[in-house]
Specification:
transmembrane; mainly alpha; 3 domains; 74% helix
Length: 266
């Protein structure tokens, strides 16, 4: 019985069928949600019968559509080493969706304004964090191209800028305006604008630069001369035949005679 020789090639990495199914379901939900929103809007415009229920249906379908769009961003990294960020983003997006549905469908009375304000604050916070993580997850798709200096430096800078933007938006919501306060508000929002510009610049420029650098690297590899390969057995025999003047059969016969004379020892 012969021993099985292991295949030296690395196993092919296949995307799980479940992940493909989830992404396909998110796309379907996204299309259906926006289709329902468009249909309700057309019916309202044609019948002039816009009421509270129709408004809630439109807001619900919009929430589900936005949640599906954001989920696709999170699912983009679930099959990569940074999958933890994707799962966190999915969880926070689900929290934001639930809070949004509660705000839309719960009948808030006049005595529940404080609770309504708390729900709005947590919905705003979860929504900002979910959108920021969606942006970060899309940027993390460039993590495999960090061999380029501009990507290696620009990627963490852009992610840090996005995190600061999210933090500077969340703090005024959670503190009801106590941060930045009335005194430091002008400086606070000026700084927010600067960081936001850096964030936007990285989001727009990094994918384009990574694509261009990738094309240049491929061209350089194709233009580089091929490395000299190790001579094959036939090549060695041909070279030895040209050096000694002996033909191929004579060289092989002498090699066999020498091997038998040595008793089969290497």
């Amino acid at each position: 019985m012969t021993a099985r020789i292991p295949d030296p090639r690395p196993p092919a990495v296949e995307r799980p069928d479940a992940l493909r199914g989830i992404r396909r379901a998110a796309v379907v939900v996204l299309i259906v949600s926006f289709s329902v929103t468009a249909l309700v809007g057309c019916v309202v415009l044609l019948t002039s019968g816009f009421g509270e229920t129709q408004g809630r249906v439109i807001l619900t379908t919009l929430l589900i559509g936005v949640f599906s769009s954001v989920s696709l961003c999170h699912l983009a990294v679930v099959s990569r080493p940074v999958r933890a960020v994707g799962f966190v983003g999915l969880a926070i997006s689900a929290v934001a969706l639930v809070l949004g549905l509660v705000l839309v469908w719960v009948p808030w009375g006049t005595g529940s304004w404080q609770l309504l304000g708390q729900a709005f604050r947590w919905f705003g916070t979860a929504g900002i964090v979910a959108l920021t993580l969606a942006q970060v997850n899309l940027l993390l798709l460039l993590a495999g191209r960090r061999r380029h200096t501009i990507v290696r430096v620009g990627l963490p800078v852009t992610i840090a800028a996005a995190s600061v933007v999210a933090l500077m938006l969340v703090l005024p919501i959670l503190t009801e305006g106590a941060i930045p306060g009335s005194g430091a508000g002008d400086l606070y929002w000026r700084l927010f604008g600067v960081v936001g510009i850096v964030d936007a610049l990285g989001v727009v420029a990094l994918p384009v630069l990574a694509r261009l650098l990738r094309g240049g690297a491929v061209d350089a590899v194709e233009a580089a001369p091929a490395a000299p390969s190790t001579p094959t057995l036939d090549g060695r025999i041909a070279a030895l035949s040209a050096t000694t003047g002996l033909d191929r059969e004579t060289l092989l016969q002498r090699a066999l005679d020498a091997y038998e004379a040595s008793g089969g020892r290497p």
